[in-house]
Amino acid sequence: MQKTTVEILAQTVDDAARHSKPIPMLTAHHPEMTIEDAYLIQRESIGRRLQRGEALVGLKMGLTSQAKMVQMGVHNPIYGHLTDEMSRNSGATLVISEHCHPRVEPEIAFLLESDLKGRVTIAQAKAAIGGICAALEVIDSRFQDFKFTLIDVVADNASSTRYVLGDVVETRDLDVSNLGMVMKVDGEVREIGSSAAILEHPLKSLVALVHMLDEVGEGLKAGQVILAGGATKAIPLEPNTQVSLEVQNLGTVEFFVKP
Ligand code: OOG
Ligand code: MG
Fold first, then answer.
1. How many distinct structural domains can be found in the chain?
2. 0.70 exceeded by the pTM?
């Protein structure tokens, strides 16, 4: 794919995000697009955000659980980039009209205290973690009806739009392999899961991310936040509700939803 086409399609997804206006899938008009093209478009669209003054603060894994793969009909893990503009504190209010059709999913986040690059092992990935927290990710596909192919969702920065982190638990010794996760709306249980649903172990998700980045000569940096991926299917945000997630040993994170 030509550089100019990459730039045009990056602008298309970026504009759809900025104006909360869903667009047709990019592959509808560009059936020749490859997954490599899609990641180039993703990086170009993040470049546009950085030019507007946003800062890159981390990365996310997506489609790492069976529940998510089944829900979206896409069966390969992917990654996306996170900027400071997407971050909200626990207790914040999120506004539905700032998005196309936002959904929320329960996650675990890692905060890195050292760089991670290359063909790292699970032990090396674990040693690079300085903190862990419960996280709610709000995703918002820019594609009509929240429907996409693997290539489209990668170009759309893995549907990233907002994420909310709970308090940081500063222990890399915590066993995150099978932590209970309960997501509630207005105090009513909506999704129940385990961190084991995230590629069998959230640390495997972190390792998979580092390996995918290594394929393009990149790596993770100290200070970055990494979302490991949704443990259950995502549910649509409903106006005038409170969404919370409790993760075993990690505490609770919550946000409020306005129309
Ligand atoms: C793609 C993003 C998936 C996750 O945690 O699985 C994702 C989507 O479902 O729109 O963030
Ligand atoms: Mg997610």
1. 1
2. yes
